[in-house]
Amino acid sequence: MAGVTAEPRLNMDVPLDPERLGAMVRQNRLDVTEMFMTAGNGHFGSCFSCTEIVTVLYFALLRLDPDRPDWADRDRFVFAKGHAAPTLYSALIRRGFFPAEWIEEYETKVGSRLMTHPSRRYQPGVDASTGALGHGLSVGVGMALAGRFDGRDYATYVLMGDGETNEGSVWEAAAAAAKFKLANLVGIIDRNRLSVDGWLADVMPMEPLGDKWRAFGWDVIEVDGHDIPALTEALRSKRGGEGPPTMVLADTLKGKGVSFMEDVRSWHADTVSAEQYALIRAELEAGA
Amino acid sequence: MATRLKTSAMIASIATAGQRTTAAPFGHTLVRLATERPEIVGLTADLAKYTDLHIFAAAHPDRFYQMGMAEQLLMGAAAGFAREGFMPFATTYGVFASRRAYDFVYMAIAEERLNVKLVCALPGLTTGYGPSHQATDDIAMFRAIPGLTIIDPCDALEIEQATEAIAAHDGPVYMRLLRGQVPRLLDDYGYTFELGRAQLLRDGGDVLFISSGLLTMRTLEVATALAADGVAAGVLHVPTIKPLDVETIAREAARGGRLVVAAENHSVVGGLGEAVGAALLGRGVTCAFRQIALPDAFLDAGALPTLHERYGISSSAIAARVKSWLA
Hints:
The structure holds two protein chains of two kinds. Chain A is an alpha/beta fold. Chain A is 37% helix and 13% strand. Chain A has a five-stranded parallel sheet, sandwiched between helices. Chain A has a two-stranded antiparallel sheet with strand order 1-9. In chain A, helix 1 (18-39) packs across helix 3 (51-61), helix 1 (18-39) crosses helix 4 and helix 3 (51-61) runs parallel beside helix 4. In chain A, 53% of the residues are buried. By secondary structure, chain B is α/β, with parallel strands linked by helices. In chain B, strands 3-2-4-5-7-6-12 form a seven-stranded mixed sheet, sandwiched between helices. A five-stranded mixed sheet of chain B has the order 9-11-10-13-14, sandwiched between helices. In chain B, strands 1-8 form a two-stranded antiparallel ribbon. In chain B, helix 10 links the parallel strand 13 and strand 14 (289-294). Chain B is globular and about 60 Å long. Classes of the chains: A alpha/beta, B alpha/beta. The interface between A and B is medium-sized, with 33 and 28 residues.
């Protein structure tokens, strides 16, 4: 398959420098495209908006060991916006948790290890089965509390969509993280402003999100979610100690990287023609 | 003048006057277990006091987490703890664990087979507060979750033993909780709880009750009352609703051509009775089969004894119906 690098693991020295992070971002979007072409459709928009966030985490910040996916001192990452799983799968593949050949079985055969949403039962390196929006931050609160109880200095990251903050459970967890002073917890909102039925401002407005999280007692950082150096700085965790949890509001574009997908609602999830596929690959490879 | 029955408060005991009881069997057992097992933590959604978890909170304050009135958070955070190797005991009322937090129990806990123990009060008709607090459908909902063990204990002895047993079991569990002053009766039957096992508490050639939870207390009373009328009733106690001990149930139901009566403190929809009926048909066991259960309805509020009488789960109501079936 054209977009799949043959070797199962890249020989890499993490953290990658910004230039190599940029190359990894392009690789990730190409991997995601291959998965969706295998399946016949997919959540392009939701995947491409969080590519830089996931790449910076996996290749510059998260303390991980692909040979020990359950290493007790690893940083935790809850990929709460589970419908964008292929972005996570690519990062796990390129970081060496499982082989690139798995891309070819994405969603398409019975027993496939890569399905539409991440599952801890099937994929090494996945810290939580997700797909039902609104669960991740509560799970992250439990993991961060457990880490403190155990005296471990791992950070817990939870990546949500902005539409996901419509779920009341997110705010239950927001209150709890502040109550328990979880400085080791970093929430990230992929603020692409679109959800299934349209602009979030019309579907159910949640802005100003910064004010809301600050009012709940969180430290809030607002950042361009496609700016790799800025993201790298914003996503660095405070790790241990007691204090406010951190919410990184990352401004993004749905479908980022492909001109005809950017900020277009219908690309939340859609099918792709052969012609469009060629265009997507050309634009991604050109590093748009 | 007759004593005016009051609406049973949340904290009211289901014990009848003069009945032997034990205070807070779950809370005290968990305190002891936690001393031996450092991985146990306790979480609640502002109901420590009414789930006997306040006893654990007082004994192990560093391992108690108050999550406020937020059951989705309660389940998610418990899942997070369990994923990190802890054994969270999460408590609330059965209605909130099932109806409000179902998706979280399903996806955040059960899908990953996480070692979370949900211990939930006010099962079935054990409060007079009306449908908002009466968990008459919790078993129906939770039976549909793959791999979730469901326990419906009968008395204080069984709660003590089941608490130990579910801690020894690796996997998610939902246990219905009787709290406060809890009746104690199974000592008299030389009973020891075993996870997944149904046990014959008494034998009888005319009727076989297959019951769980509070209704086993009732069926034992009814069996004694029926004996005085010359009707011999046996009681097969089934505290583990899932996985169901189909083998024992089928063997006992097939024995002796008795009237089989499934009895439960739960809606007639989706609980022990339907599980037993399906198990018997599946095993090719044919017998006269009846159900004692709460109706498929939103139940009234009121005083518990009145409600138990009205909805047919008091001892006298059960005895009367069984006699009518035998007539």
